[in-house]
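Consider this today:
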Amino acid sequence: MVPEEGGASQARQEPETVRAQLDRILASPEFLAPERGRRFLQYIVEETLDGNGEQLKASTIAQAVFGRDASFDAQNDPVVRIEAGRIRRALERYYLVCGNSDPVEITIPKGGYAPHFSSIEDSSTVEAAASSNRENNQRQPGHEQRQPGHDRGQPGHERPLRYRDLLLPIGIPALFGAVAVLALIRPLESYLSPPEMPPAPAVSTSTSKTRIVVEPFVALGGTAQGADLAKGLADQLIAKLMKVDRLVVLAPGRFGVETIGSLFNLQGSTIVEGTILHLHVRLINGADGTVVWANQYDRDLRDQTTLDVEDDIAAQIVTEISTSRKLDGAGPLP
């Protein structure tokens, strides 16, 4: 397994396996990172596999990946630190969305730039070692097992009289007698006491909240960048809306008509013209189909990563929706 940051490489993963995993990540549409971020990840992985993990400093990465010169100062130019944070988030999202069954997990621990490689086999080895330790502890002296027939009477030895031998013949008839008395008292109690009304069914807290269905955004124009932005914006909105206490986020097509509370559908479309993103978003009342809120967002994609644009727009949309009074005025589904 590779290093801790700044430490010597101790990778147990085969370099071919790690490189195959790196290619799998870079080829996945769910790995949302710009071109220079992909170069950054590829560089630190290859350097670590070559045994140069301890040399992965901000200055060396800035010169090799970002074209900085020897006068680079990490204190005044945080480009390496910022890009490392973005790649950490992109890797976390990749393994959360589609990479949870991959054979190797690549992470960048905080505090440095040397990547860390782990696999399912590592955890299996740890569990097997723990099981072996438990078995060895059970075999140590002092854990002797009771031999068969230990409590049985041996010829020539009288078994001492125990309390259980006296309680069994007396306790069982007493138990049946108590059950018979309770069976007679219970019907009398039902006649003497007024009937109890069944408690009213409690209304589920989640069903009484405002519910929002985030529908997949439509990518117009047929560009791959527009499709990535549409998918990423929907994912970011779901994650941020789930943090609003008075809202319940539902998956498309997974809600019932008998639940209590207002229902809204959040729809949107994206189009990329050159370096400009145009985003149209609308909130529709599920009861009558009226549009209760709509807005347009334009962003210049130059000098910004896709993740930053998605995060900024999603945060603005969630703020406007969660503070809107129109959510409280909509009626429930018919």
Summary: DSSP finds ten helices and eight strands in the chain.
